[in-house]
Amino acid sequence: MSIAKNDIELWLSFKGGSERALERLYQRYFPALSRYGYRVMPDRLLVEDAIQDIFVDLWRRREYLSEVEHVKSYLFRALRNQLFRNTRHDIFEAAEDIDDFLDYLSSLSTEQQSIDRETQLNRSQSIQNALANLSNRQREAVHLRFYQGLSLDEAAEVMGIRKQVVKNLLSKSYAVLRISLKTLISLFPVSFAG
User: Three-class SS of residue 89?
Assistant: First the structure.
């Protein structure tokens, strides 16, 4: 059974009053929601509180919720909105901690973990410099699309913008990253191929 189909069944079961279904959704998505939340708001306590708030609110309003086609993107958008409500200011004005983001990028690749420290430091610095050239919105679009695996439609839903705007953000991000990482890609073509 596909994850999406399983998610829809869990969602319907939770809406029907199953605490176990809500618990399974929480367990399945807490890690991904945490990673996404830290990209938007690099404060662990705020993010974890917001995730708790989402699931408490979902349980409280379960009878009034509509059916959803993409549970993951629904939860991401709910987290984004909850963080906004909890902080009472524009989340994009807060500076993202680029070092934490780079640590996250580095942890995704076992190949990068196996290289020696000096080479990894050089790569991390290059990636940090490249990502620093992106706007907060561009970094968020890249994170949602490629590190969370959301479709363009789902990323647009989470960010609260049109699909075409996500495409434009990604297109501009690619151009900036392609130029910024040109040297790194030519030096280490294998690590970017997988």
Answer: coil
Phi, psi of 21 (to 5 degrees): -65, -40
Closest by CA position to 104, among listed 158, 52, 169, 31? 31
Torsion on CA atoms 144, 117, 121, 177, rounded to nearest 10: -40
pLDDT digit string, tens, across residues 153-174: 999 999 999 999 999 998 888 8
Beta carbons of 155 and 145 less than 8 angstroms apart: yes
Distance between start and end Cα atoms, the chain: 27
CA distance 26 to 60: 15
Assess contact for 133 and 180: CB atoms under 8 A. Answer: yes
Can you point out the beta strands (E) in 31-168? none
Task: Give tens-digit pLDDT for 60-105.
Answer: 888 888 888 889 989 999 998 888 888 764 433 444 455 555 555 5
The amino acid that residue 83 corresponds to is L
